[in-house]
Amino acid sequence: MKILNVFYNMDPVSGGGAAERTFQMSRYLVRTGAECVVLTTDVGMTPERQEALAGVEVVALPYFNRRFYIPRFSSLRRMKNLVESVDVIHLMGHWTAINVLTYLFARRLGTPYVVCPAGSLLIFGRSKWLKRLFRWLIGARIVREAEGHIAISPNEIPQFGTYGVEADRVTVIPNGIDPEDFVSKDASGFRDRYDLGDRPIVLFVGRLSPEKGPDLLLDAFWRAGGERVDDYLLVFAGPDGGMLSKLRATAERRGLKDRVRFLGFVGGAAKSDAYHAADLLVIPSRREAMSIVVLEAGAAGTPVLLTDQCGFDEVAEIGGGRVVPASAEGLEEGLTAILDNPEELGEMGDRLRRFTEAGFTWDSIADRHLDLYASILGTRKPGKGQAGG
Q: Is the domain of 95 the same as that of 215?
């Protein structure tokens, strides 16, 4: 079976969780013996990133628009030939030119495709009028006409319904994790590298943008106060998504300058070290299909506090952390409850680690994708990339 994974941006800094899912899924599909091609733009496609995708064919197209990442017209023939050569296409995300072009070629050539919007179906954030126009012109058709529909958590299923896709046509395949990415445990080295001292750490990992809710966390941290909470250092690890200057100003205005750190993007082994250095990870998202950083924390055995908009309420059910409303007040209550009982943090982290390793490793998640593709293609009929016999 030959699979084409399509996402506009494989940059680990700006691509977010969808880029990470595409990256990991592609690596693991190849390990199962499938052929896998990644179609993307050349944003962030460094030699190191390409090397990490060993065994995966990467087609990184040049583009001419930084905001919309529109591939250059000279790439169209290459895209057409690629779509024609594969058995099935996997479209990640939604509001992108590369998805539109791939969809048009797929319909013309009869190549089946699945969609995995990864929480992007709702109209949220900037350019709402443009997204409404996109949905009316072609976006709804791309979703409706797909042969397969993947939600990464059950709370995403109703979003497909707004596009006319019935719930029984949606397959839930969650995010996954590679535990080997989180074996580095140099907590002291991480603290020294960023001059964090020896205070216990409350950690945020993600883009500093409105949907991720870093402002809610900062507000909750200030509100919580108290003898226990005042001992902690709040560390933001992630690239600026438009909120950094505002967050810095808020921290200074509220007298938190010495208790809050902004590290910028943290990746690779340093990211693993950050999880192992932290006492608690907080995910204050206003909107999230399924937070991948919950799994990263789980791989490191770090307990979590997250909002009920993260698509991962099971965390509370298994005792790996707490789930609270997506508000400063909800996060304040959660922070106070958890940090007032620090002796429970270790066991919470252990429970989350066991839960993560039992059901969310990429080897099992990749198999679930293959099962879906096979059901679409029919297991007895060889496809374009398969040998007969």
A: no
Q: Is residue 346 part of a domain?
A: yes
330 shares a domain with 201: yes
Helical packing angle, 76-85 and 97-109, nearest 10°: 50
Cβ proximity of 149 and 167 under 8 Å = no
Give the three-class secondary structure for 380: coil
Q: How far is CA 157 from CA 114, 118, 164, in A?
A: 15, 11, 11
382 within a domain of the structure (yes/no): no
In sequence order, what are the residues at sequence separation of 6 or more whose Cβ sits closer than 8 angstroms to the Cβ of residue 319? 347, 348, 351
CA distance linking residue 25 with residue 222, whole number of Å: 39
User: What is the total count of domains within the chain?
Assistant: 2
* DSSP, residue by residue, 126-168: S-HHHHHHHIIIIIHHHHHT-SEEEESSGGGHHHHHTTT--GG
Indicate the length of the chain as a whole number.
389
Q: What predicted TM-score, i.e. pTM, was given to this entire model?
A: 0.83
pLDDT per residue as tens digits for the range 258-287: 999 999 999 889 999 999 999 999 999 998
Burial of 249 (0-12, 13-18, 19+ CB in 10 A): exposed
